Amino acid sequence: MKKTKSRILIIAGGGKKHMSPFERAAKELGVNVKIASFSEVEYLSKDGKVELLIDGENLDAFSTIYIRLVGKRFEDAALLVSEARKKGIKIVDIIYQKSQFIKLPLAKSLETKLFFESEIPTPKTYFASLKKIKTEAPKIFGYPFVIKGTAGKQGHAVWSPRDESELEELYSKLREKERVGGRFIAQEFIKASQRERILVIGNSAVAEITRPTRWRRRFIKKVKGEFPEGIKKGIAPVPKEDAEIAVKAATSLGIDIAGVDLIREDTTGKPYILEVNSAPRWESIKKDTGIEVEKEIIKFLL
User: C-alpha dihedral over 38, 40, 45, 51, to 10 degrees?
Assistant: First the structure.
């Protein structure tokens, strides 16, 4: 089958209803886009050949594939990546081009290690068993410090013990997770009252919003007896320093479309990258900035 120029496949685990904004954006841009689910991946081995299909279509019909979200469909994603690489079809994120299949999001232990190796400012980190974290992290960081599950995402699986009793209680709670394969990192506690989310598409930071951090009341001062409200708004244009560090962080992981979380220490202004989300939600970004994210992604995929 002859490849159709600039036809794009956007695929994700689960249903397709949540990807309908891509269909509307593609129609407005006059771009040929197919929305699919990993449940529509199939193949038949016959006469020494394997033909992989997406909703009945051969991959030759597409010039670019954007894997929006894998979810639990690792097996289907591996099959798709393998076939696309064989056919020379561009895959987004670029990390898929470099290996047969990479599970995204990356574990935080690996993600943080790659940040340090790329000289991206990141909170001081200790990766070890829970038992060693319990004994060593207080010596390394003092209290409070932060504990994160390495498979957590978008702010989930994050705790911050403030003293020995809270750490002991948390240790008892998390041991069962470790027994079934869970791993954890400990990090220094950065006194940052705001957290930025920067949307990176390709080599550009296209939008930024700010939100208050979870534990800000531990260190901010009251004004007239009340804690000041945190700021929730879009930031436009994206400051040059934020854009540069966000793009560098996403690039260091081989991720083309990312939500990069950044904080700045209140007293020094020093920036720290917390994480790069390879399947970011962007409802708040669209609301606060007016950026039509799906259109920007399709333009990049072209």
Answer: -90
Q: Is residue 21 part of a domain?
A: yes
Helix (H) or strand (E) holding 261: strand 257-264
CATH of the domain at 228: 3.30.470.20
Q: Bridge partners of 204?
A: 201
Q: What is the spatial distance between Cα 279 and Cα 167, in angstroms, rounded to a whole number?
A: 31
| Strands 8-12, 64-69: pairing kind | parallel
pLDDT of 78 reads: 85
Q: What is the CATH number of the domain that holds 71?
A: 3.40.50.20
Whole-number Å distance between alpha carbons of 152 and 172: 19
Query: CB-hemisphere CA count at 13 Å for 89?
Result: 26
Averaged pLDDT, 223-252: 95
- Taking the C-alpha atoms of residue 100 and residue 106, their distance in angstroms, rounded to an integer, is 15
If asked whether residues 181 and 219 sit together in one domain, one would say no
pLDDT in tens, 165-224: 999 999 999 999 998 888 899 999 999 999 999 999 999 999 999 999 999 999 999 998
Assess if residue 290 is contained within a domain: yes
pLDDT above 90 as % of the chain: 68
Whether residue 167 contacts residue 138, with contact meaning beta carbons closer than 8 Å, is answered with: yes
Domain region containing 260:
194-301
Q: How many other C-beta atoms are found inside a 10 Å radius of the C-beta of residue 270?
A: 12
CB 7 within 8 A of CB 66: no
| pTM (two decimals) | 0.85
pLDDT of residue 158: 95
Q: How many structural domains are present in the chain?
A: 3
Domain-embedded: residue 110: no
Instruction: Look at residue 112 and tell me if it is in a domain.
Output: no
Distance (Å, rounded) from C-alpha 186 to C-alpha 275? 14
